[in-house]
Every structure is written in C-alpha cells, then in structure tokens.
Amino acid sequence: xxxxxxxxxxxxxxxxxxxxxxxxxxxxxxxxxxxxxxxxxxxxxxxxxxxxxxxxxxxxxxxxxxxxxxxxxxxxxxxxxxxxxxxxxxxxxxxxxxxxxxxxxxxxxxxxxxxxxxxxxxxxxxxxxxxxxxxxxxxxxxxxxxxxxxxxxxxxxxxxxxxxxxxxxxxxxxxxxxxxxxxxxxxxxxxxxxxxxxxxxxxxxxxxxxxxxxxxxxxxxxxxxxxxxxxxxxxxxxxxxxxxxxxxxxxxxxxxxxxxxxxxxxxxxxxxxxxxxxxxxxxxxxxxxxxxxxxxxxxxxxxxxxxxxxxxxxxxxxxxxxxxxxxxxxxxxxxxxxxxxxxxxxxxxxxxxxxxxxxxxxxxxxxxxxxxxxxxxxxxxxxxxxxxxxxxxxxxxxxxxxxxxxxxxxxxxxxxxxxxxxxxxxxxxxxxxxxxxxxxxxxxxxxxxxxxxxxxxxxxxxxxxxxxxxxxxxxxxxxxxxxxxxxxxxxxxxxxxxxxxxxxxxxxxxxxxxxxxxxxxxxxxxxxxxxxxxxxxxxxxxxxxxxxxxxxxxxxxxxxxxxxxxxxxxxxxxxxxxxxxxxxxxxxxxxxxxxxxxxxxxxxxxxxxxxxxxxxxxxxxxxxxxxxxxxxxxxxxxxxxxxxxxxxxxxxxxxxxxxxxxxxxxxxxxxxxxxxxxxxxxxxxxx
Amino acid sequence: xxxxxxxxxxxxxxxxxxxxxxxxxxxxxxxxxxxxxxxxxxxxxxxxxxxxxxxxxxxxxxxxxxxxxxxxxxxxxxxxxxxxxxxxxxxxxxxxxxxxxxxxxxx
Lengths: 687, 107
What we know:
Organism (chain B): Brassica napus (Rape)
Number of helices of chain A: 17
Number of helices of chain B: 4
Radius of gyration of chain A: 44 Å
Shape of chain B: flat
Largest interface: A-B, 20 and 18 residues
Distance between the termini of chain B: 49 Å
Largest sheet of chain B: none
Helix content of chain B: over 70%
Pfam families (chain B): DAD
Helix content of chain A: 40-55%
Order of helices and strands of chain B: HHHH
Keywords (chain B): Apoptosis, Endoplasmic reticulum, Membrane, Transmembrane, Transmembrane helix
Subunit structure (chain B): Component of the oligosaccharyltransferase (OST) complex.
Oligomer: heterodimer
Strand order of the largest sheet of chain A: 10-11-7-5-13
InterPro entries (chain B): DAD/Ost2
Number of strands of chain A: 24
Structural class of chain B: mainly alpha
C-alpha cells in the first residue's frame, strides 16, 4: 500500500511538473513517514553533530514517529556533556544542545543552569555577527521554556533589537555581519526568529515603532518572492530554495507568535509557499527533508493563516464503473479541515474552449471518510481530458485560526469509458473501378482467421466506426494496422479518422517498392488504443496473400531481420580510418652527412680568407668606437642567430617582431661605427 | 700533338693563374664568397638528387638563396672593379661606401 502510494505520489509529482497550470498537490502522508525512517535514523545509532541530531529528532517528532528510545541514549550523553560545561563549547553547540534537550528532555527541572544562562547572556552582549545573536537569543528562549525556575529576561532589549535591525537592508534582506556587504534572504529568516526571541524576552513592551519597521521589512521581503508556473511561491538564495524559504517561514511563525498585534501576510503567497513544499515530494537529503517538514509544521500551526490543500486520491473518472469523484480538503499534514464547502465551478473540456460541461455543482460531504464527493455526472459528460476548477469556501464563523485556500484549484481529470466499435470490415478492391472483390465483416473482440488474397493492382480497405458512450465520433490516439511477412519483415500503417469513420486504404500499386517486392503470406494485425478508452484492443485479423511483381535489379533489398530482436542494440562494427601514407624520408645518417658537407664550403671560405691575408686593421681601438663596432658585429651575429631560431622553432610573426627591434638597434650602432670609420679615414686623408 | 695540347693547357693555366694573382685583395675576397655560395648550392642539388625532392620548398629556398647571394656578390664585384671603366655604373651613388651599402641592403 505504501509502495503504491509512493508510486502514485511520484507520478503525481511528474504530472504536476509537466502540466503547467493545473496540478494536484498531496498532503504529507505515510510515504513520507517511511522515507523519514530511512533518512534520519543513523546506522550506528549516533549522529555526527548536534545540529544533525536536532534536525533528525525534530522531523521525527513532527511526523509522529517515535524512535526516541533507541536514539536517546547516545545523543543525550552528548547533550548533557555540552550543557554541563558550557564555557568550553561554542554558542552554536550550546544552542543545538538545548534544542535537542527540548525534544528528548535529557535534563530538565526547576533549577536553571546558571553557567549556561550567563554564557548566553554574555553572548548577547558581545555579539557582533547575526549568527551569534541568533544562537544566544534563541538559546535563552529555549532555557526559559525548558527550565521553569526563573524568569530570564534581556536587560537592554531595545539596544539588542536595534543592533540586530542595523544589519538589515532596504530590500528586506539581512546581512550576516556589518563588515560583509553580502545579504541573503536566509539571514532574514534567522533575523526574524532572533527578533521574535528578543521581543518575547523583553521585560517590558518594546517600542511599537521598531516592531512596525520590522513588519515593513517583512513586506519588502515578500516583494522578492519568486514564482513557478504552477502557482507555487518560494524564496531563492545561494543556500537553495528549500533552506531559504524554510528559514523565512520559521522566522515569520516565531514573529507572529511573539507579538500581540496581527501580522498581515498575503494569503495567496502563503498557500503558494505551502504548495512549494508539498511539491518537493520526498527529498533524499536530510537537510531538505528537515526544512520541508519544519516549514510545513510552521505553516500548519501559526497565527497568521493556515493553508488548506485540496487533493484528489484519484484523478480518473470511469464512466463504466460509475463511481463518484472524491475530493479531500485538509491541512498540509493531512489533518482535518474546518467546516467548509467545496464547489465544482467549472469542468472545462480540453477540446472545446471556454464552454464548461458542469457548472457550479456543490459537492456533498461524507463525514466518516472526510471527503467531498460528486456523485453524478451530467448526461453530456463524455470521455476525454478535462480541467476541473474547484472553489473552496471556508465557514468563517466558528474558527479561532485563520484558514486560507487558493481562490481556484485547477485539477486535470481524465474521463474514461468503453468505446463501441461498429461496422468493422476489411475488403479487397479492384483499383480503377473501386468494385469490391471480396469483403469480410470483422468482430474485433476476438482473434479471427480471415483469409484474403490480392495482387499488386488491387487495394486493401479497412474501415470501422468508433463511437463514445454518448454517440460522438471517437478519434483514438493510436490506430495502427501491421502487415507482417513470413520472413518477419513488418510494415505499419496508420488508420485515419475523419468525419464519421476510421478508414485505411492500402493501394498496393504504390506500395510495391515499400514492401520490398516480397510476395507471399502477410499477417494482419490491428491495434487501437487511447488513454480514455477502457477497451483498447490488439487483434489478429487474419492473413492476406499478396502477389507482387518480381524485384527489378536496382530495388532495395529487405533489411536483414535479426533472429534476436535485441541485436539491433549491440555495438556497431568498428570503423578503421585510412590515413594518408606519410612521405618516405631519407635515412637520418644520410641527412647528417650532408649537413656536415654543407658546412665545408664555409670553412673553405674562411681558410681562403686567412690565406689571402685579409686584415682587420681598420678595427678601431679607441674605447667608444670599439664598443659600437663590437655591438654592431654582435648585432649582426644576433640577427643570424634569429634566422637560425626562425628555422628551428619560431614562427614568422615573433621573428619579424624580434627582427624589427634588432634592426632599429643595429641602425643606431652601425651609424655610430661608420661615422667613426669615416672620421678615421678623413683624418688619414687630411694627414 | 697530345703533348703540345697538354703543354698548351698547362701554359694557359699558368698564365691565367699569374694574371689572377694580380687582382686586388678585395676582389679576391668577393670571388671566394661567390665560390663558397655556389658550392653550397651544388651540394644541396646533389642531396636532392640523392633523396628526392620531398620538401620541395626547402630545396628551392636553399638553392635559390645561395644562387641569389652569389649573383649579388658578382654585381658588387663588377661595380667595385677599378679596371672596369667601360662599365661605368649608372647607379645613383659612385663612391665605394654607397655601392657596399646597396649590396648589403639587397642581401
């Protein structure tokens, strides 16, 4: 039953995701509880941290699962250890230890642990970061709840309030600290909870103007709410939509509980937030699960407005079974809703736009099963897909809480029925004239053994009439005729519905090539199916002997039908690529030999130069001229080196860049050298 | 007859050699440079004949650069040669420095 419920829930979530505006949300059910047992009960009996322990135990408590006896021993040890020596733990640990203590009641009583109180109060005084404020203030609230001995109060509540408020921003978000300009909606939720704690711990009334400013920032925050198409609202931030929205809802609940004047929040957004959490389904992550259940618990029991959810156990109406349509209205946890009336405002058929089949039908209430049901459907309610629009009216008078519902809930409904099939017949016609050669009536409810024969000049005609229970023509989603040859080659044709009947005409003259010119015995199979059709069928009609002409040379062969139908999914043949054969290069040694040979003429040149007695007497000896001459020759050597590098490694552009730089350098140096030489020769001439 | 031809050849060779040694040193340097360039080109051609002209670009660049520099050196020699009066260069510059500068730029 649980597995069935879970499967249906998953299907509903998928349906909700696919169909945009119309969707169904189910309240928290037993499938959630069984999943919680898997997610939250640790294997070795102990939790990794107090924060995880708190989240798990709170979720199990909200869901009403009692596993405390197993887990309490190890966790309680941890809690008592932290609470016994609070000075050695952080504020966060003390806070979570107190939270777990609230659930497990490891340590309670009249006497207030003074060291815990003093640590928390010091924490409030010294706090600079939002998280420090949060842990210390909420810790004090928890101590006040759990230890009934004394009256703890915050001395300078207004100062604390103001310093927390100082971290807020104009768009409703909160910063974590005054240094960091990053703000987040998650922090806003923490801030609301903290401020609510400050208000409840204050010894006297806090100035109303401060509370008003807080209400204004809540309203501003709601301006930044985001929306999906199916009407769900959420807050998104870097921590993720579930954590952020849950934090805001926790904050709102604490704030509404702590102060006397009412908090006005837009009702449709509250319902949207509830739908967001219900639409999450069953989260696999422990933190998401905790946030979902905690937020829904806050929505279920708060002082601003409690959302009610309309859900349907089944969205299929069967016209043959004539069962009533059942509707449930409950809170998000499936608890009983107050007195209200449910009305089916409209039933819009997907085909006809705008006109509604049912109008303003009141649903009857069955107190035993707490469901509303619609017994009878009007005479013109045919099979097909509909969108039912429900309206809920809450009986305001006798309620202490404010309940809120959606204005209109749109639900996709599918109506199914039995389709009658009449006048089913199959015939072989002569092509030109259209006269019937052989015709057989079919009874599609059972397999038949009709035997026909045709040649390529004739046609095959299948015709039938499909009608809905109300007598309208029915167009099925799937209507196929399959012809299967003896050699397992199959062909599928669509049976088209138009006007009054469904018909398929196969002209074999045009189909000869498609049938691969295979003559012989073909099995005929007809398939008709639709979501609204309760009696979908697949029937073997019989055989037809086809006489087709011989295959010409160029026609396509029928594809090889594999013996194993799954062999089309095996890996395909490996492709071997053909690369261009690389050019044959000469042997390496030969190339090296010739490299040596090339150098020989250069050496010969140098030897010849020395033999000729070439002189370098004109090389200047004075310092200034010598350096420029050396630089000049060095520069030329560098250019030659650059050529070698270009050959070996560099590309043209880097070479050109380097060459231009060297060229400019050489220009200057060379000019200097030549001017020195010219001056020297002038001196010689004049001397 | 054979002896006379060989003797003639030897005489011819000797006369050429003596005439050549009279040329100034500058021109001999240029001649040697030309010989060096041509030899480099010839070795590359021999290599190509041996192993085929696969990277044809390399062969062309090597041979043509050698041949080009040889040709430019020959031009320089012509212009610098003092005995070459009829080939009075119709270049823009007439002094030695200008001619060498033109050679360097061309190379």
